[in-house]
Specification:
The chain has 62 residues and is an alpha+beta fold. It contains 1 helix and 2 strands.
Length: 62
């Protein structure tokens, strides 16, 4: 039985698959919680992957 070919890499080259991050703003709220904001990758819009067409256009493995 032959091995199946591996699909093209769809990991976003801008964020390497880590599409979202929580960043602390420093300080705490009155309840004692850290103040944070969540940011998302602008290339993949927070998914960590790209569509097949985007991979070809970005120069990823085909």
């Amino acid at each position: 039985m032959t091995a199946r070919p591996r699909p093209a890499s769809r990991i976003c080259p801008a964020c390497d698959g880590f599409a979202s991050a929580a960043i602390t703003l420093g300080g705490r709220t009155r309840a004692g919680h850290l103040r944070t904001i969540t940011v998302h990758c602008s290339k993949c819009l927070g998914t960590g992957t790209l569509t097949r067409r985007s991979v070809v256009l970005a120069g990823g493995r085909a």
